[in-house]
Design brief:
single chain, 3 domains, six-stranded mixed β-sheet, 10 strands
């Protein structure tokens, strides 16, 4: 069964479990706790039809259906306990707290019964589905399609340790060597070519995991290789050394795993990503409503400052290389780039007097709330650049492309530190902070960056 089939199985199971648990809870509440005859009413039927959908929405936000094939029993139990506890609290205050009861002990019993019934009804079929899922993955050829980079004796030792383990979940599709001669693995799995052809090999073969079996001390080679193949979609694992083990870089995914460093594609948990997008939409919607008088005033100020349109549209590169048009209030005179793309400077004569104030306060960026609503941008994320400058940056720092894994933002850590970049050098400096953000992003960090941005707007100290 493919990933889609397992996901549908879980969804149908969760819908049925939510309806079943509500029926059981409603019956026990009336018959056992309240001591009256079971009598279905509007709340009963409303709970059967609406509550399962609300539970499903909660599971989606939680990330239960994200990377379904990588679920394991402990993880699904943890997800079930967390969801059942939080969901029961919400239902208790929304539907149960105003019930007429004989004593406050009835409230405690209702909450405990609701939690236990929902947890058991949800986790039991989930465990069954995940158990079947794990068994199919461990069958011959059913595991995650894995490519080994390296053909030396270490690569052979690593391959044998993983493939001979009874709980192996990797299906090795082949290997590539890095020095042109080491092919210790050739008797076990297909030889696919040399490391210099890695991009071409990956474009032809569907690979879910890549194990780089070369020495972790070869930093330059590892860096160049990771920049070429780390697209945030495939799981990448590296050999570890003693320093990395002591520094805590090893991520333990199971008790039987080999000591490998697993690169985390995105440090922000899926539930935080869901909340981030929801917050982006809600805050942008209300910001547009509340800032309507400001938009009108700013439009008049821009129009009176110099001839030309009020708004300025420009193509930028967004998430996964998607091209979109960013919108700002115009801060420069008309035809400011008639000689080609040019970055602005602090005393740029092309900037109008009104534009200079708007740039210091970041007010020219406020129309980008519309970009956030459309899904092209986020409130916080690396600032989007034009392809013209991206091409120049990539000649010096190819890792810049990693910033396009996430939605660009109205503000960013790099923007807070450096403001508008005046040259490629400043773009590279700003990029370092955005890369740090990318590797550490979280809702808490987003809030911190937004607070600093608000201070910049209030103090009018932006650059």
């Amino acid at each position: 069964m493919e990933t889609k089939g397992w996901r549908i199985s879980l969804i149908l199971s969760d819908l049925s479990s939510a309806a079943f648990s509500w029926c059981c809870f409603f019956y026990l509440r009336q018959e056992v706790i309240e001591g009256r005859t079971f009598q279905p009413d509007n709340n009963f039927f409303l709970g059967i039809t609406i509550l399962p959908l609300l539970w499903l929405l909660f599971y989606f936000i939680q990330g239960t259906y994200y990377e379904v094939r990588r679920l394991f029993r402990i993880k699904i139990l943890s997800l079930s306990i967390t969801a059942s506890a939080l969901g029961s609290v919400v239902l208790f205050f929304a539907l149960i707290l105003d019930d007429e009861v004989r004593s406050y002990n009835d409230y405690y019993q209702l909450f405990i019964v609701l939690f236990i019934i929902h947890f058991i009804a949800t986790s039991a079929p989930r465990l069954l589905i995940v158990t079947f899922l794990i068994s199919t993955i461990r069958k011959q050829g059913g595991g995650f399609k894995t490519l080994v980079v390296g053909g030396n004796d270490k690569a052979l030792e690593l391959y044998q340790e993983i493939s001979n383990h009874p709980k192996n979940v990797n299906n090795f599709v082949g290997f590539v060597n890095v020095n042109g001669k080491d092919k210790f693995l050739e008797q076990h799995i297909p030889y696919l070519g040399h490391e210099k052809d890695l991009e071409s090999i990956l474009s032809k073969i569907d690979v879910e995991e890549i194990i780089i079996a070369i020495e972790a001390t070869e930093h330059d080679r590892l860096k160049n290789m990771l920049l070429r193949i780390d697209d945030g979609k495939r799981r990448i694992k590296l050999l570890s050394d003693t320093f990395e083990i002591l520094s805590g870089s090893i991520k333990m995914t199971n008790l039987f795993g080999v000591a490998l460093i697993e690169l985390i594609p995105d440090p922000m948990p899926y539930w935080q990503q869901s909340i981030k997008r929801l917050v982006d939409f809600i805050l942008s919607f209300f910001a547009i409503l509340m800032l309507t008088p400001f938009y009108i005033f700013s439009a008049l100020a821009v129009k009176l400052s110099s001839p030309g349109p009020i708004l300025f549209f420009q193509e930028r590169i967004g998430i996964n290389g998607h091209i979109f048009k960013i919108v700002k209030f115009r801060t420069m005179y008309l035809d400011a780039e008639k000689l080609g793309p040019q970055l602005s400077s602090e005393n740029d004569p092309r900037i109008t007097n009104i534009g200079r104030f708007m740039r210091k306060t970041r007010l020219d960026e406020f129309p980008q709330f519309f970009n956030v609503l459309l899904g092209d941008m986020s409130l916080v994320g690396p600032r989007p650049e034009r392809q013209f400058y991206i091409d120049q940056i990539l000649l010096r720092e190819p890792q810049y492309l990693q910033l396009t894994r996430v939605r660009p933002g109205i503000t960013s850590w790099g923007q807070v530190k450096y403001g508008y970049a005046e040259n490629v050098e400043q773009m590279l400096d700003r990029m370092k902070y955005d890369l740090i953000y990318l590797k550490n992003r979280s809702l808490a960090l987003d809030v911190k960056i937004m607070l600093y941005t608000v201070l910049i707007v209030l103090r009018a100290k932006g650059k």
